[in-house]
Amino acid sequence: MASQKWFKRNIFLLSWLLLVLPASSLIPINVLPKGIPQIKTIPSQAATGDIIANFLSANDNLDGPQLSAINSTSADWWYFDVVSPDLLTSLTITFFTALDSSFPFLPPSSNVDVVGIFYSFPNGTYDVIFIYASAAIVTTDVNGSSGKYVGAGASWSGSSDLSRYEISIDSPENGISGTFTLDTLAPAHYPCGPATAGQNMMVAPHTGWANAMPDAVGTVNFTILGSEMGFEGVAYHDKNWMDQPFQQNVASWYWGHGRLGPYSIVWFDTMGLDGREWVSAYASENGEIVFSSCEASSLSVRPSGGDDQYPPSVTGGDPTGFTIWMDLGDAGALDVNVMIEAVAADGGPGYKRWTGSMEGRVCCGPLMKGGVAVLEQFKLV
Ligand SMILES: *[C@@H]1O[C@H](CO)[C@@H](O)[C@H](O)[C@H]1NC(C)=O
Ligand SMILES: *[C@@H]1O[C@H](CO)[C@@H](O)[C@H](O)[C@H]1NC(C)=O
Ligand SMILES: *[C@@H]1O[C@H](CO)[C@@H](O)[C@H](O)[C@H]1NC(C)=O
Ligand SMILES: *[C@@H]1O[C@H](CO)[C@@H](O)[C@H](O)[C@H]1NC(C)=O
Which residues belong to any copy of the AsqO/PenF-like C-terminal domain (predicted)? Predict the structure, then answer.
């Protein structure tokens, strides 16, 4: 009788303890599940009505979807590129969830789920293949994401710690198949600093940016319309999202990334339609962030050579390069000349993506040469 009473009382106490104590204080941390992957299906049809966009970073979901749904005036996409050390061969794969009404550089279509595969060969030939899907299924595991474009034979798969991504395309009807893997060399960041929770993720008005892989070793093994493309090069992965049409917020936009000497750098210098400049500067060395800031004084990117008018005009020509000045904090200041080498994608007068070479110095050290870059320019006014 007594032992039954004791049992009852202790069961009561134990259930009470279980209710008030967080699970983590009873179970050792290392046996807790690492987080439950979140799965989101983005249908090919645009949503109607208002969507909700997130621009505040959290403890996870760095590379996950940031919009509640895609309507005809919003966009979310995952971008991957790689350039060969020959500075001519390049591959960019972008998994879009967007219509041309929100991103006018997409072909007109009523299908939101589209993969763009942009390529350039050593002889200067470049082009793009767009493949449409019946749905996009995006899974987020801690900070990494994976996406399956149903019916398109296209997918990406990222590790939860952002160390490795793999893209696979298998679309014989479009004449394209292969794999592109990225192994990280530089820690992730947001526009205004390293990847921590509670940061503003806006890189321009109504435009979010998360840079999961500022620099990576890219390994390409593709067949494109019967031609082989295989190399190891400088690779990169980020994502953008917006809850208003791109053209409503951007007058011009200079972005690029590359490797120069011991540095992996990423620059973002954009001007809004209101004439306000928005910047983001990032540099890392040996896998450690040296500098990451969105302070106005941290970066300046200007066209140089050819048509070097700034702000640029969509009716003008293109520059032959860019000059970049980047604050590196205690390490000094970095001056870089970027020389355009080849066209990687051509979206008419309003958009170009190029491969580039770089040289420069950290004030006032030796000249660093042999830099490799991918860069882009939008001009919308
Ligand atoms: C899409 O959602 C945004 C954000 O809520 C809203 O401002 C916009 O009007 C919506 N677009 C359409 C076409 O309903
Ligand atoms: C350039 O190279 C690509 C890939 O090898 C090939 O398909 C294309 O025909 C070449 N173009 C010219 C003009 O030689
Ligand atoms: C995921 O990213 C957030 C920043 O959004 C960061 O605070 C967190 O430490 C990252 N988690 C892991 C496991 O790296
Ligand atoms: C590239 O892919 C082809 C076809 O899948 C395969 O036969 C070949 O071994 C791969 N090459 C490399 C270097 O991985």
Answer: 247-379
| Residue whose CA is at the smallest distance from ligand 2 atom 8 | 125
- Cα separation of 271 and 302, whole Å? 12
Predicted confidence (pLDDT) at residue 142 exceeds the cutoff of 70: yes
103 CA to centre of ligand 3 in angstroms: 29
Give this prediction's pTM. Answer: 0.92
Determine whether the shortest distance from the Cβ of 223 to ligand 2 is under 6 A: no
Give the mean pLDDT of 67-84: 98
Determine if ligand 1 sits within 6 Å of the CB of residue 243: yes
Residue 362, both tokens:
């950290």
Is ligand 2 within 6 A of the CB of residue 41? no
124 within ligand 2 shell (Cβ under 6 A): no
Provide, for the chain, the percentages of residues in helix, strand and coil under a 3-state DSSP scheme, each rounded to the nearest 5: 10, 55, 35
Closest residue by Cα to atom 1, ligand 3, is: 60
Q: How far is CA 352 from CA 181, 216, 254, 374, in A?
A: 24, 22, 10, 11
Confidence of residue 364 (pLDDT cuts 50, 70, 90): confident
Q: DSSP characters for 354-375?
A: EEEEEEEEETTSPPEEEEEEEE
By C-alpha distance, which of 286, 185, 178 is closest to 235?
Answer: 185
> Is the C-alpha dihedral spanning 264, 217, 90, 250 positive or negative?
negative
CATH 2.40.370.10 assigned to domain 28-379? The reply is yes
Ligand with the closest atom to the CA of 56: 3
Tens digits of residue pLDDT in 15-47: 544 444 444 444 444 444 457 899 999 999 999
What residues flank ligand 4, with Cβ below 6 Å?
221, 230
**Number of other residues whose CB lies within 10 A of the CB of residue 15:** 9
**226 alpha carbon, closest ligand:** 2
Paired with 333 in beta bridges are 327
Instruction: Please provide the distance, in angstroms rounded to a whole number, between the alpha carbons at the two ends of the chain.
Output: 87
Q: Best substitution site from 170, 180, 221 to test ligand 4's pocket, by max atoms within 8 Å of Cβ? A: 221
The stretch 292-305 carries a mean pLDDT of 98
